[in-house]
Design goal:
With 297 residues, the protein is mainly α. Helix content is 73%, strand content 2%. The chain has one domain: MetI-like (MetI-like fold, Orthogonal Bundle). The longest helix has 34 residues.
Length: 297
């Protein structure tokens, strides 16, 4: 800034002073240290442990044998495939179910949308273990669904319990509240005046959605899908209780390898591989956030 020029009052209020900068750094230091201690350090330690393997004589040597075993073992690959399949199906179902609910909540008025929002958010307050056993009593063998079908003279249907569809049902139900909340927040940035103007010129609801709403929902859909996928890929309780024993998702697979088989090296290898897949979706999320900040500037 040239000599003689002064900042406006608003700019002077926003610009940090030299005394404020150390205070700001101290405020963010503790969260950053906790992040490094609880997340970054365990990840690096797991990678180092699986690459630099301790030998019988006490020395360490570079070895990728555990990774070679994972990608050559048919059972491990089947578990990885089931995890990817479950994550993909749950992500698609969450967007297919959550987006219409979010659209209804955003552009509707009255008491009914408030009740719908309450029902959509209710699973957020139900612990996963309680949800698991509630689903067993509902869709499991001789559960509520079977009792109702029998009462009206209809045959039983194959139960999704202990099949790959069991975790899908539980994970969709468990992650729906966060999906609806995030999509509703993203829709909140779309002004109703744009939608009303399109309706005034004769645009159909489908055209309004494709031409006005969907182009502005790109980042929200990406962030929502990233959060859902990261949570589903690393889930444990619902796949452990509702899913089959073989093949199984990566969460129960890691736990069984570590505790039942007493094989921490392969369990860490499975964790590192799972982190690698989650890192891809995490990069999409970080890039989306960075793009939003650039647009805001």
């Amino acid at each position: 800034m040239r000599k003689g020029m002064t900042l406006p009052l608003s700019a002077r209020a926003v610009a940090p002073t030299k005394a404020q900068r150390p205070v700001g750094l101290l405020l963010v230091a503790l969260p950053v240290l906790l992040l490094a201690w609880l997340i970054v350090y365990p990840i690096l330690a797991a990678v180092v442990t699986t690459v630099f393997v301790r030998q019988p004589d006490g020395s360490s040597a570079v070895s990728l044998a555990s990774y070679a075993f994972f990608f050559s073992d048919s059972y491990s690959l089947a578990n990885l495939w089931v995890t990817l399949w479950t994550t993909f199906v749950c992500g698609v179902l969450l967007l297919a179910i959550g987006l219409p609910i979010a659209l209804y909540l955003r552009f509707s008025q009255g008491r009914l949308p408030a009740y719908v929002q309450g029902l959509a958010i209710f699973p957020m307050f139900v612990p996963s273990i309680i949800l698991s056993y509630a689903l067993i009593r509902t869709i499991g063998p001789n559960g509520t669904v079977d009792i109702l079908l029998n009462a009206i003279g209809l045959p039983k249907i194959p139960s999704p319990y202990l099949t790959p569809w069991g975790p899908v049902i539980g994970l969709v139900w468990d992650n729906l509240p966060l999906t609806v909340l995030m999509l509703t927040t993203g829709l909140g940035t779309i002004p109703k005046s744009s939608v009303e103007a399109a309706r005034d010129v004769g645009a159909s609801p489908l055209r309004v959605f494709i031409s006005i709403i969907l182009p502005r929902m790109g980042n929200s859909l990406l962030v929502t899908a990233s959060f859902a996928i990261l949570g589903i890929f690393s889930s444990f309780t619902l796949p452990y209780v509702l899913g089959p024993a073989s093949p199984e998702m990566m969460g129960p697979f890691m736990q069984r390898t570590f505790s039942d088989l007493n094989d921490p090296l392969n369990a860490l290898t499975q964790a590192v591989i799972s982190f690698g897949f989650c890192l891809v979706f995490g990069i999409f999320y970080v890039r989306s956030i960075a793009r939003n900040r650039e647009v805001a500037k």
